[in-house]
Amino acid sequence: MDVMGDKATLLETGRFVQSSDRDEAGEAAEELRLRLAAEAGDVEAMSVFGSLLLRRGDLDGAEPQLRAATAAGDRAAANNLGVLLHQRGYADEAAGWWRIAAVAGSAAAAHALGRHHRERGDEPAAEYWLRQSAEQGHALGAYALADLLEHRGDSGAEQWMRAAAERGHREAAYRLARALDRRGAGEADGDNGVDAGADEDASAAEEAEQWYRQAAARGHRRAALHLGAILERRGELKEAGRWYLTSAKDGEARAACALGFLLRDAGDTESAAVWWLRAAQEGDGNAANALGALHAERGETQTAERWYRAAMDAGDVNGAYNLGLLCAEQGRTAQAEQWYRRAAYAGHREAANALAILLLQGGDTAGAEPWFSKAAEAGSVDAAFNLGILFAGRGEDGVALRWYERAAAAGHTEAALQVGIARLRDGDEGGAERHLRCAAGGGSAEAAYRLATVLDARRPPTPAHELGESVHEKSECEEWYERAAGQGHRRAQVRVGMLAAARGDVVEAARWYREAAEAGSRNGAFNLGLLLAREGSEPEAAVWWTRAADAGHGRAALRLALVYARRGELAEGQRWADRAVALGPGEVAERAARLRDALREELSA
């Protein structure tokens, strides 16, 4: 009789509180005493003896005892007779006895009668009797009344849900916690869209946790799952793991899956796999995906594919997406497209983005665009950025900028960089700086460099420093140059070297120039050559100038021409002068041309 709740709770036997640790002999003696008293006509004994037989499942033995006690006016017996008849399938007759007991003041009977009327669709009668039960302090009555009111959208539901929870009803505690949890998430007021307030939200979330804890302590597995999630978000991983474990052992697949992720993050992959397997076997698609990813990392692609398919069969669209990724990694493009399409049609935004990329790589720009749009409209930040790239490639800079702005607003680093560059191009230095700061803060070396150049342009000129002077405090622009340089940005490395040289820190300047030069920067190689020459190491300087000149640096070629001219190697000097003329820029080409002509005259003399 699931609709009636816990059978033992419905039975009214509170007048005879019996010790739970009584031995079997004592129980048998008590039962014999009750039987003899009932046979002797003791109404109270008949009622209790009947309820004992009812709990045992001996309906035939219980019925005459309960009928006799009921006929003598025992309300508990009338309620329990109703329970018995309900179990036999005589619902209407059961309701008649419940009514008698309820009118006599039985809260349990009022609850049972209220549930009977609700099953029949008579909500006014159901509410009347459930309210009678609830107002007498009956936990099941309070919960059933709250459930009825909540179903109708009545604001009084929470009051009775709270009353049931306070009386130890674990499902009421869980449902109250869920309601408070939603409120604590900061849902806006439905009439005016105004947030209820951070303090109220925090208070509701805190109270929700208390009710989750109470329900979980009473064995509610979903409450234990939610409590574990709250603790995990707060960083209390050890206690979160305990509640996940409690819930998982009680059969909650989502808790087993969450426990698996917790163990994986702690480095215990083997134990994680055990819990994921348990959850996946119970139909948890997320756990099946996790197992698939685990086997894919190990190179066990067939097993991974099997688990991804299991996830898909469990209704988790991530399974199809992950199958697409697996096929793409193996070069199975046609199969990857098939799985991406399946996931994308099911609304998986990242699958739509991946499908669009695949189509774009195959040259199908027209086919890619709608999938990028679909993914972006569904909230994919990467897809919004990719649309920006797509439109920029077509020369539609205005449309591209709108998509870049959308992705940047969602925190996409490269999109913020592109918006910053566009703002600089349009002369909006303030807007550029805001976006470049966001991108640089997100780890973009190019954004850090460009932000540094913006700040650098505003700096007042600083006086020249002599070698050996004390180093001044670094400016913000220099800090951004250094951040970009530390991330391997070659132009930033050169600039940091120049700033170090300007304040007289030759060692620091040489370090950054060398790092840039070794990464392929011709300006870094040229400046390193200048530094070495100034320090008296012209042969080594020539090596770096040669590297810079071979990379197309005109000034480096001119320096080499002068070096070889001074050494008397006129032909080699003339060759580098010719190269400097070809490379430029104009001022360098002019000087190199004069040097080349002088060397030519000397060679022909």
Jot down its keywords.
mainly alpha; 605 residues
Characterise this structure:
The chain is mostly helical and 605 residues long. The chain has 35 helices and no strands. It has helices at 7-10, 24-39, 43-56, 59-71, 75-88, 91-103, 107-119, 123-135, 139-152, 157-166, 170-184, 198-217, 221-233, 237-249, 253-265, 269-281, 285-297, 301-313, 318-329, 333-345, 349-361, 365-377, 381-393, 397-409, 413-425, 429-441, 445-458, 476-486, 490-502, 506-518, 522-534, 538-550, 554-567, 570-583, 586-604. Helix 32 crosses helix 33. The chain is elongated. The termini are far apart.
Strand content: under 5%
CA radius of gyration: 40 Å
Task: Give the low-confidence spans.
Answer: 1-22, 188-196, 465-471
Portion of residues within helices: over 70%
The shape is elongated
Distance between the termini: 120 Å
Number of helices: 35
What is the typical, i.e. mean, pLDDT?
89
Number of strands: 0
The biggest beta sheet is recorded as: none
Oligomeric nature of the chains? single chain
| Coarse structural class | mainly alpha
In short:
This protein is mainly α.
Secondary structure blueprint with pairings:
Layout: H1 7-10, H2 24-39, H3 43-56, H4 59-71, H5 75-88, H6 91-103, H7 107-119, H8 123-135, H9 139-152, H10 157-166, H11 170-184, H12 198-217, H13 221-233, H14 237-249, H15 253-265, H16 269-281, H17 285-297, H18 301-313, H19 318-329, H20 333-345, H21 349-361, H22 365-377, H23 381-393, H24 397-409, H25 413-425, H26 429-441, H27 445-458, H28 476-486, H29 490-502, H30 506-518, H31 522-534, H32 538-550, H33 554-567, H34 570-583, H35 586-604
Helix pairs in contact: 2-3, 3-4, 3-5, 4-5, 5-6, 6-7, 7-8, 7-9, 8-9, 9-10, 10-11, 11-12, 12-13, 13-14, 14-15, 15-16, 16-17, 17-18, 17-19, 18-19, 19-20, 20-21, 21-22, 22-23, 23-24, 24-25, 25-26, 26-27, 27-28, 28-29, 29-30, 30-31, 31-32, 32-33, 33-34, 33-35, 34-35
